[in-house]
Amino acid sequence: MDPSLEFLISNIPPETAKILEVGCGDGANLRVISSIFPQVYCEGFDPMVQKQQINSNVALVNGTAPERLKHYSDKAFDFVFTRSVLMYIPSWKIKETLVEILRVGKHGLLIEQGGSKVSFSDRITIMRHTCRNLGNYQKYRCFHNFEALFKSLGIDAKISPLPFTLGDKFWDKYGVVILT
C-alpha cells in the first residue's frame, strides 16, 4: 500500500462514521478505506466522475472545490482528507476551499505539496513534469504557502514534512502533512 495512504488510514479517528475525500478521482482511496472500515460511510467528489454508488458505503459525486463543499452542512463529516489535490486549486480559490474543508469536517488531514520553500527552478521543473504527464488535465499548478494561508485565516493547523518517503524527489522534498 502507498505510504501516504497508510499514514492517512492510521490517522482516521476511531469514532469516525462519515469520511469525505476532496478530489477522489476514481474512488480508489475510498475503496481501500471502506474495506478496512466497513461501518464507515465514505463519500468523495471529483470533476472527472459521474455520480455513482460504488457499494453500500461508498458514493462518488461530480464536483469541484470549493463549490461542491457548499452543499454540505457544518461538520457533516467526521474526517475530511485530500491527497495531492490542493495544488490544482487556483490561488484565488484556495482560502475559500480551506475554509469550506474545515467547516464541513470535524477532523482533517491534507497530504499536499507546497510551502514557502519551493524554489523557482523546482516550480518550473515540476510544472513541466506535470504538463507532460497529465496533458491539459489541469492548467493550474499552484504551490501554496500553507503556513501563511492558515495563519491568515486565524486557523491553528499542524503542518509538518511528510513522515514517509514516496521515492519522488519533489514530493520527498516539498511534501507536507496538515492536520486540523
Structure explained in plain terms:
With 180 residues, the chain is an alpha/beta fold. It has one domain (3-179): Vaccinia Virus protein VP39 (Rossmann fold, 3-Layer(aba) Sandwich), CATH 3.40.50. It has helices spanning 3-10, 28-36, 91-104, 120-134, 146-152, 169-174, and strands at 18-22, 41-46, 52-55, 58-62, 77-83, 105-113, 158-161, 175-179. An 8-stranded mixed beta sheet has the order 3-4-2-1-5-6-8-7. A hairpin with a 2-residue loop joins β3 and β4. The longest helix is centred in the C-terminal third of the chain and has 15 residues, at 120-134. The relative contact order is 0.16.
Features:
alpha/beta; 180 residues; 6 helices; Rossmann fold; eight-stranded mixed beta sheet; globular; 8 strands
Residue share in helices? Answer: 25-40%
The ordered H/E elements are HEHEEEEHEHHEHE
Give the low-confidence spans: 130-138
Q: Mean pLDDT across all residues, rounded? A: 84
Shape verdict: globular
The helix count comes to 6
Q: Mind describing the biggest β-sheet?
A: 8 strands, mixed
CATH architecture: 3-Layer(aba) Sandwich
How far is the N terminus from the C terminus?
Answer: 24 Å
Instruction: Return the CATH class.
Output: Alpha Beta
**CATH fold title:** Rossmann fold
Number of domains: 1
Lateral strand order in the biggest sheet: 3-4-2-1-5-6-8-7
In terms of DSSP E residues, the strand content is 25-35%
- At the fourth CATH level, what is the homologous superfamily? Vaccinia Virus protein VP39
Structural class: alpha/beta
